[in-house]
Design a protein that fits this description.
The structure holds two protein chains of two kinds.
Chain A lengths: L13 H11 L8 H16 L4 E7 L5 H7 L6 E8 L2 H4 L5 E4 L12 E7 L8 H11 E12 L5 H15 L12 H10 L3 E14 L2 H10 L16 H14 L7 E13 L18
Parallel strand pairs in A: 1-2, 1-4, 2-3, 4-5
Antiparallel strand pairs in A: 5-7, 6-7
Chain B lengths: L1 H8 L3 H4 L12 E3 L4 E4 L4 E6 L2 E2 L7 E2 L7
Antiparallel strand pairs in B: 1-2, 2-3, 3-4, 3-5
Classes of the chains: A alpha/beta, B alpha+beta.
């Protein structure tokens, strides 16, 4: 084994992220609600383009959810879809052309695709600008990148409660790095990566769960515990966890007693080749709450 | 039985057309016998498992007789 380049000073541990996704693969079908929801919204954005694509990449394909949605969607014409995930256990479930790759080091020849899709796969990437540059290079001139990634408001309720419980029970706050992007930075990131006509907008998805533990189970089931702690950290004490769950129920319950969790989705759109103007109808997309 | 297994463990030629070394972005050689994708420039051999190329440097075999890395 080579020394992992994530093992040094990089904030996010890619090997840990991969392990979590490996473990989640078997039961992902029970926890893929959010993936299918954001995937369906990605499909709308593809359809908006009203054009045919020859070869698309689904980067971070999980078990092939996006491809499955596409196969049932008559309005979108894509000749060939290549699916890639960092976890072999995920990629195994995808049908058709598939491979294992890390978003931080893409193995694709220049100008291979005319469409690159990323459905909740870019959080936890240490060098997001570098990753976006690699995506742009894998695109042909005029090719389109459509991404959905977690925004900074994601799980603000849970993070608030965990922080409150740590201060109350442990007398301090353990450092946590949330692998999320601020929508105000996202457009600039795309521009910096050389994308033309970059657009970043936000969808906010509120989901209710029976209780806070069900939310934690869902996150683990998605292989997304890294939203909360991107590096292996000191075990959260049972008492602290219980206090956090209590705070959650007290502060973020709906009238039906179920707890609410916010997922903020930042939609990224960019064209490779700065000279290429986007088709006319993309500006109709507005902030959707 | 062995035949179908061989088929399913082989890489799809369509993937060979588009893959490069993730570290050096240079061309790969397909070693059908070893079922590996060789990056001479990086001095690494990427394994193919169940027909799925594993394009992770951490999972690659370091080639002997190389000055790379």
């Amino acid at each position: 084994m080579m020394q992992s380049k994530s093992a040094g000073n990089s904030p996010f541990d890619r090997n840990l992220l991969r392990q979590r996704r490996q473990r989640a693969a078997g039961n992902l079908a029970r926890h893929d609600f959010l993936l299918r929801e954001t995937g369906a919204r990605l499909l709308e954005r593809i359809e908006d383009q009203q054009r045919e694509f020859k070869r698309a990449l689904d980067l971070g394909c999980h078990r092939g959810e996006l491809s499955n949605l596409l196969s049932r969607h008559a309005g979108i014409r894509i000749g060939q879809i290549v699916q890639s995930d960092i976890a072999p256990a995920m990629a195994q479930y995808a049908q058709g052309l598939r491979l294992v790759a890390d978003e931080e080091a893409l193995p694709f020849a220049a100008e291979t695709f005319d469409l690159v899709l990323s459905n909740l796969g870019l959080h936890g990437v240490n060098d997001l600008p570098g990753c976006l540059v690699q995506i742009r290079r894998a695109l042909q001139p005029g090719g389109l990148f459509l991404g959905a990634m977690f925004g900074g408001e994601t799980l603000h309720e849970l993070r608030h409660c965990l922080a409150g419980a740590e201060i109350a029970c442990d007398g301090g706050l353990s450092p946590r790095i949330a692998p999320m992007v601020d929508v105000r930075d996202a457009g600039a990131l795309l521009q910096r990566a050389g994308f033309g006509n970059p657009i970043a907008d936000v969808d906010t998805i509120r989901v209710s769960y029976d209780n806070p533990l069900a939310l934690l189970r869902e996150l683990r089931g998605m292989g997304e515990s890294n939203i909360l702690h991107a590096r292996r950290r000191v075990f959260l004490r049972r008492e602290t966890l219980a206090a956090a769950m209590k705070l959650y129920r007290e502060n973020f319950s709906g009238p039906d007693g179920r707890i609410l969790a916010t997922f903020q989705i930042v939609n990224l759109t960019g064209w490779a080749g700065a000279e290429i103007a986007p088709p006319g109808n993309v500006t109709r997309r507005v902030l959707r709450q | 039985m062995p035949d179908t297994h061989m088929q399913s463990s082989r890489i799809d030629p369509k993937l060979l057309e588009i893959l490069v070394c993730p570290l050096t972005k240079s061309a790969l050689e397909y070693d059908a016998a070893a079922n590996e994708l060789i990056s001479r420039k990086a001095g690494l051999a990427y394994p193919i498992r169940d027909g799925i190329p594993i394009m992770l440097p951490d999972e690659a075999r370091r080639l002997p007789d190389t000055n790379a890395g």
